[in-house]
Design a protein that fits this description.
- The chain has 148 residues and is mainly beta.
- The protein has two domains: 37 residues, no CATH class; 90 residues, Immunoglobulin-like.
- It has one helix and ten strands, in the order αββββββββββ.
- A hairpin with a 4-residue loop joins β9 and β10.
- The termini are far apart.
């Protein structure tokens, strides 16, 4: 009887360790884009959080390859780092942060000399926020930010 219980406990622990899991893939905006059934897989280690002073160009998230606006990190915990490069006659004229309900939480008036801005998110509750970049030529871009 003891051998039978020992065999069952080993079998049960092996089953629990090798259980099937679902893994999810996300795009840069935090939207789920894939769901995969993973059999006999190990969970991935947590992504290392870097200080802003240690950022490299490849760490910055971009809208697209031809776009000149970068942001880091998303999801954000304390501070969002925005960086942009524009032509001489075009610049970021304003940055606004909106809650999901449409309330304006921050309104920053840019200048032609500024090329980056840090937005403090530590005082905001967890959720989804929209960052609107308004350019001097009237063009606008929106970034969806997730606050943890």
């Amino acid at each position: 009887m003891k051998k039978y219980l020992l065999f069952l406990s080993v079998l049960l622990s092996n089953y629990l360790l090798n259980a099937q899991k679902l893994t999810f893939g996300y795009d840069l905006a935090g939207n789920q884009i894939s769901r995969t059934l993973c059999v006999n897989c190990n969970s991935k280690p947590a992504k290392e959080i870097k200080e802003i002073s240690a950022l490299q160009e490849e760490d910055l998230l971009q809208f697209s390859h031809e776009d000149q606006v970068s942001y880091y990190p998303n999801p954000v915990r304390e501070e969002l780092y925005l960086s942009w490069q524009t032509s001489a006659n075009k610049y970021v004229a304003a940055i606004k942060v909106f809650s999901v309900t449409g309330q304006v939480l921050l309104n920053y008036q840019g200048s032609s000399k500024a090329n980056n801005y840090n937005i403090a998110f530590q005082s905001y509750p967890s959720g989804i926020y929209l960052v609107l970049l308004s350019y001097s030529d009237g063009e606008e871009k929106t970034i969806k930010i997730i606050k943890q």
